[in-house]
């Protein structure tokens, strides 16, 4: 509690400030108050939790799984061969310059309103931090440690498994913690631009009805889910990377 007290106090202050400003403006279709959003969340709990949240989380989970597989494969390939690195690295960077709001409608045209149009948007947003972070983790391996293992007769496979993977693990978990909020954002953007269910779709529908609290309600729900998932990843990281405290 002592560690989290400053963030809790800051959050309470910001929410209180938001409440005061919303009461002064008194235009809930522009800026609803936190209490109005909570009331709306409670009123809409059944469709949000039973229909739209599972749809968004399904897109997020599938996109994140593919991003992890794709990102790790690219990072390993670039680490194995410098020519592959020279060929792939500029393309990976260029992929992040594509505006998501421009490419998402094309995915909808290609794949319709199926789940795959939204999954592709999520992959496009999330594979980059995983690829670059894990690749940087591989490159962070100390050369003298590699040479020491070589003197003991270790093969390249042994060096990769026993040295490079442990070195890259903190980078991998950092990338996952970045990718989780990005994957949720990507799924919501894709649903906003073209979907029949999901929290992004629901938020857009509420905007067409000028329901400010209804627009914010799924956003708050997504934020809470993202924080819970990142907290779980933090716990797993502490359990798996138990040598970090020693360092």
UniProtKB/TrEMBL annotation:
Extent of the signal sequence: none
Membrane topology: Multi-pass membrane protein
Protein name: Putative aliphatic sulfonates transport permease protein SsuC
CDD domains for the chain: TM_PBP2
UniProt family annotation: Belongs to the binding-protein-dependent transport system permease family.
UniProt xrefs under InterPro entries: MetI-like, MetI-like_sf
Domain annotation ABC transmembrane type-1: ranges: 53-237
Pfam family, one: BPD_transp_1
Bilayer-crossing regions: 7-31, 51-76, 88-113, 119-138, 172-195, 215-236
GO cellular component: plasma membrane
GO biological process: transmembrane transport
Localisation per UniProt entry: Cell membrane
UniProt keyword list: Cell membrane, Membrane, Transmembrane, Transmembrane helix, Transport
Gene designation: ssuC_4
């Amino acid at each position: 509690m002592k560690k989290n007290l400053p963030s809790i106090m800051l959050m309470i202050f910001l929410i209180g400030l938001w409440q005061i400003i919303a009461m002064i403006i008194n235009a809930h279709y522009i800026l609803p108050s936190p209490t109005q959003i909570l009331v709306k969340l409670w009123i809409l709990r059944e469709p949000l939790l039973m229909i739209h949240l599972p749809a968004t989380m399904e897109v997020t989970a599938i996109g994140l799984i593919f991003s992890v597989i794709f990102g790790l494969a690219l990072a390993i390939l670039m680490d194995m061969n410098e020519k592959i690195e020279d060929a792939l690295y500029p393309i990976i960077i260029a992929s992040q310059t594509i505006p998501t709001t421009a490419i998402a409608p094309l995915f909808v045209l290609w794949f319709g309103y199926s789940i795959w149009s939204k999954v592709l948007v999520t992959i496009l947003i999330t594979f980059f931090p995983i690829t670059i972070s894990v690749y940087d983790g591989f490159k962070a391996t100390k050369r003298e440690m590699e040479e020491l293992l070589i003197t003991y007769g270790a093969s390249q496979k042994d060096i990769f498994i026993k040295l490079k993977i442990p070195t890259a693990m903190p980078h991998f978990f950092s990338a996952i913690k970045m990718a989780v909020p990005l994957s949720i954002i990507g799924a919501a953007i894709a649903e906003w631009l073209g979907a029949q269910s999901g929290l992004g779709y629901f938020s857009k529908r509420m905007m067409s009805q000028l329901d400010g609290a209804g627009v914010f309600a799924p956003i708050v729900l997504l934020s809470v889910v993202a924080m819970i998932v990142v907290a779980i990843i933090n716990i797993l990281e502490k359990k798996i990377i138990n040598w970090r405290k020693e360092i």
